[in-house]
Structure formats: C-alpha cells, structure tokens
Amino acid sequence: MVPNALFVACVALLAAPLGVHSLWPIPRTLSTGSEGLKLAHGFAIQFQGSLSHHAPADLKAAVSRTLYQLKHDGLERLVVGRAGADTDKIAKARQLNALKVELVASASNNILGITQNANLPIGMRDEAYTLHVPADGSPSVLSANSTLGLFRGLTTFSQLWYTSGSTIYTVEAPITIWDKPAYPYRGLMLDTARNFFPKADILRTLDAMSYVKASTFHWHIVDSQSFPLVIPEFPELSAKGAYAPDQVYTPADVQEIVAYAGARGIDVMMEIDTPGHTSAISASYPEYVACPDARPWASFANEPPAGQLRLASPSVLTFVQQLITSVLKELPGPYFSTGGDEVNLNCYKMDNITQTQLVQHNQTFEQALDTFVQATHKPILGAGKVPVVWEEMALNNNVTLSNDTLVMVWISSANAKAVVDQGFQIVHAPSDYFYLDCGAGGWVGDFVAGNSWCDPFKTWQKAYSFDPLANITSDQAHLVLGGEQLLWTEQSSPSNMDSIIWPRAAASAEVFWTGNTLPSGNATSTSEALSRLHDLRYRLVQRGIRAIPLQPHWCALRPHACDLTA
Length: 566
Ligand SMILES: *[C@@H]1O[C@H](CO)[C@@H](O)[C@H](O)[C@H]1NC(C)=O
Ligand SMILES: *[C@@H]1O[C@H](CO)[C@@H](O)[C@H](O)[C@H]1NC(C)=O
Ligand SMILES: *[C@@H]1O[C@H](CO)[C@@H](O)[C@H](O)[C@H]1NC(C)=O
Ligand SMILES: *[C@@H]1O[C@H](CO)[C@@H](O)[C@H](O)[C@H]1NC(C)=O
Ligand SMILES: *[C@@H]1O[C@H](CO)[C@@H](O)[C@H](O)[C@H]1NC(C)=O
Ligand SMILES: *[C@@H]1O[C@H](CO)[C@@H](O)[C@H](O)[C@H]1NC(C)=O
Ligand SMILES: *[C@@H]1O[C@H](CO)[C@@H](O)[C@H](O)[C@H]1NC(C)=O
Fold this sequence. Notes:
globular, TIM Barrel, five-stranded mixed barrel, alpha/beta, glycoprotein, 18% strand, Chitobiase, domain 2, eight-stranded parallel beta sheet, 2 domains, Beta-hexosaminidase, beta-N-acetylhexosaminidase activity, single chain, binds 2-acetamido-2-deoxy-beta-D-glucopyranose
C-alpha cells in the first residue's frame, strides 16, 4: 500500500498544473497555459501609437533595463533537473519576436513619464496594465493608460522567463494578465541615521523595491545619532551632525536618489523626525535642543543620546519651519513626514529653558506640542503637500492635525482601528508584523540577557499573514492607503542590508499589491506563496541583490515537499 500511495502522490504532483511560480506580487487576474514559448534572437520591445514618437525618456530606459534583465537574469527554473527538465518543451516552443507596448486611448504628444506619475497625489496614480502573451508566437501586447502602468507591466513581463543556455523561455504560455494594486502605498522604510548607507546601497535597494512593484521609499534620513542630510541653508547641521564628512547626502545625492526612484515608479517620502529624535541638532545649534545627551539616557529618551527640540521656543519653531521649507522644495512627492514619535516628557521637565518658556507663554506641554506640530505642518500644507506623522500624534497627544494627515501605525497592529476611527488615513507599519530589525538581541552593551524590544524576529510568513482590514469596517477601508516594512538600523549597515531586507520585504509588497485574494479566488496563504517567493529570491540574487535563502535548496526545487503536512 505504501509504495502505491507514494506513486499516486507522485503522479498527482506531475499532473498538477505548473502554476505561475515566477510572479511576485501575483497579479489580481491571471490565466496561464502549459505550452512552451521562447524569445526569438531578435526579440524586441516595440512602442505603438503615440509612444512610437513620444515615449518619455524614463519609459525608454525602463524598456532597456527590461531587455537587459531578459538577457542577463540567467535564472533556471526551480525544478529538479533545473533547465534540463524543460528540454522537450523548449524544443517544441514557438518563437516570440516582439512585445508591443501601447498606451490606450492616448493620442497626446505630451505623455507623462513614469517619474511624473509616481509623484502624483496617491489617489491619482494609475498602475493598472494588461498583458497578453500568446503561445503561437504572435506578438505579446502590454497596454495601460499610463506609463506607470506600462512600467508595472514590464516588471511582470521580466519575471515570466527562465534561461536554458542561451534560450529564454516560459513553459506557461499562453498568459493573460489584468492587474492593478489593491493599495496605492507599498513601501519600505530605511533609517540612514543610526548607521550610514552610501548612495549606491540606496539605489540598489530602490531597484529591488521596483522588482516587487513597491511605490514608496520612506526615508528616515536623520535622527538623534547623526544628521547626514546636507541642507544648504543650514550647512552646520550635517557639517557637525554627520558621522563623517563623506557620510552625508548632498542635494545632488538627494536629487539623484529621487530621480532614480521616480523612474522606477517609487515616490520618496522623506522624514525629518521632530521634536524628539533630534539630539544630533545640538552639535550645531545647542540652544535649540533640550536635555542633550542627558544621563541616564533611558530616563530621557528611548535610545541614546537623549535630546529633543525645545518645542516652546519661538526661535526653534522658526528654525524648524525654515528647515522643512528648505528640504521640501527639493522633493517632488506629495508627502512629507514630521515624525512625532516617542516625545519624552522628562526631557522637557529637566530643561529649565523649556519650563520658563512654557510659563512665559502660559502653555501646558500639550498646548506647546500642539502649537509646534501645527507650525511644522504649515509649510507642508502651504506647499500643497500632505503631512505624515507617527501614530502617537493621533492617539497619545492632544494635537490638532489637518484632516488629510497620513498616520503611520507602528507600535502595534491593534492601534490601526483607533486611528481610522478618528477619520485619518493610515499606513500600516506595525512593529508586530513589519519591523525587519526585531529579534537580533539587545544591542545595549551591559544588557547581557537582553532581547530586542520587539522580539521575536519577524519572519516573511508573519509579515505575509498581515490582514490590512482587520477590525476595520467596510466604510473605513478607503482610509487604509497601504503598508510598509521598516528597517531601523541600530544593527544594520551596507554589510547586512540586502540580507536583512530581502526577500522578507517582498511579503508586504504582495500583501498590499494583491490583497488577500489570489487570482484563483482562493485566499492568499504562505504555503501557496512559498514557491513563488523562492523564485523571486533566486531572481533577486541573479540581479545582484544578496537576498538570503528561505529554505534548503533541496526544498526550493520541490514545491510543498518541505511543508509540515508533506
Ligand atoms: C484604460 O482605460 C479604459 C477606458 O477608461 C478602460 O476601459 C481600461 O480598462 C483601462 N485599462 C487599464 C489597463 O486600466
Ligand atoms: C534648573 O533650575 C534649578 C532651580 O533653579 C537648578 O537647581 C538647576 O540646576 C537648573 N538646571 C539646569 C540644567 O540648569
Ligand atoms: C493662563 O491660561 C489659563 C487657561 O488658559 C487662564 O485661565 C489664565 O488666566 C492664563 N494666565 C495668564 C497669566 O495669562
Ligand atoms: C485638547 O485640546 C483641546 C483644544 O486645545 C482642548 O479643548 C481639550 O480640553 C484638550 N483635551 C485634553 C484631554 O487635554
Ligand atoms: C478634509 O476636510 C475638507 C473640508 O471639510 C474636505 O473637503 C476633505 O475631503 C477632507 N479630507 C479628508 C481626507 O477627509
Ligand atoms: C482586532 O480586534 C481583536 C479583538 O479586539 C484584537 O484582539 C486584535 O488584536 C485586533 N487586531 C488588529 C490587527 O487590530
Ligand atoms: C483553492 O482552495 C481549495 C481548498 O483549499 C483547493 O482545493 C483548490 O485546489 C484551490 N484552488 C486553486 C486553484 O489553487
């Protein structure tokens, strides 16, 4: 009986449809066949209609990158025998000569580029596309109503193919896809203040983000430990606050990063955290900072060194407004974050200047904080942009926020409901699902048995199991803009950047692109996702991202063979 049962199981495995193991995030609607198709030697991506004469430069560049990926990914299919398993299918495969790329219903000569689309207000970004890859060798067609949609479609197209020697092929033709994201905000947050990340590492990360169709790079650029942002109007901030003269982001660096992101469909949302997390400002403007490096630090801040902006000081308000105005004008995106997390009351209590100013203005701490937050949001609103804050500003402090303020929920997933109950739009960034830094122990030297505060390590499965609409009513669902995974970098640098982010950050990219339903109509599940995530991980490695393995290679070649129930 046992050999028979095994035999039946093997036949069932072989007879099962191949499934699209190669796509991440999986499209909303998808149908595939089981025929082979290979790219012809002269395979070309051709612009149709208005695009043939007026394709924006960033779309042309995206096409070039796609052709490069098709040629150089060099990924063999993840099956026992790898490419050798497909010899028969490849031999019978028709050749595909072209992918035709068209903008539907656009006769305009003034076509918005990917970059311009990526920086539109979030509700106006059109990322939808359709893609048809016939099995008979007739041209494939990618169409969309925006160049951003075309870019997302090119990203999908680039994931359809495997390599066998010099042959680039699929075994799943014909393929038809209709796709658009479930949520517009699909992000990754990087902290570049606890440890510094050179520009090249950020650019590589933006590439990886674009491979999983992420839409937002949340750049937590400065913090108490260092101030690497060069602001020409306030050069001393970075001159005295950066770790080293060459560990800074100049205006040219920021422009390059913003442009690189935009061309990959990614909006850069910068954060200057205030009034807490600002000790680094004391190096250049000691008069603006309360309790700088006060000890014991744990009484005055969640992390050393302590130090917060003197929130009741009129000259500090003017300074922060000028600082935000200077930074804002370099950024094309619609959002800007003023942070607002972990404001420490003890720090202000021990600061005689703040106490004196509160008395002078006849204000409580809460009132002064309200004045401060409104003042810092004024230049953002004045520029027609949307202020972003961490959840405490909505839940713990009595501050008046404009009704379009975007609130990042980070302390716990369970707090999302309370924020949307106030009518604010939210981004899910909960530490209990999406923090990439948890589980690496305590980093404080004399804390031998210490764990990270957000233990345990958040696996990709945990992140993938997140439900964006948990406890949120259907009339509140529109307030959920999406979510992001976050890397706080107390224990990260370029040396472990790829491995701590990838492939884990792909989990939320799919949660917020695909939503909770697979194209089959079934609910998403980690067991369905695993083989596709393997595929993505191997492809990331082929593209130069040092993503870590999810399992032994043996399991990667045998979908479901390492499931608990297998
Ligand atoms: C493009 O717009 C047309 C007309 O509004 C619509 O029918 C079509 O679904 C859109 N295509 C995509 C890929 O969103
Ligand atoms: C604040 O004022 C108190 C009382 O006047 C004084 O004892 C203390 O040293 C002052 N603290 C600082 C940091 O100046
Ligand atoms: C301070 O404010 C309180 C409440 O807002 C008010 O009752 C009081 O008269 C004010 N005191 C001064 C000196 O302005
Ligand atoms: C919050 O602020 C408003 C307006 O400043 C005030 O009326 C209200 O009493 C404050 N609530 C609390 C709980 O402090
Ligand atoms: C904010 O309030 C204004 C004016 O009442 C309204 O037009 C707008 O739709 C509101 N925005 C949000 C996000 O609720
Ligand atoms: C949903 O509500 C339940 C019951 O109040 C709570 O236990 C759970 O943590 C909440 N989950 C989220 C994600 O808000
Ligand atoms: C959907 O889920 C059901 C129940 O788990 C399963 O039997 C079926 O094979 C799934 N369908 C697809 C297309 O994966």
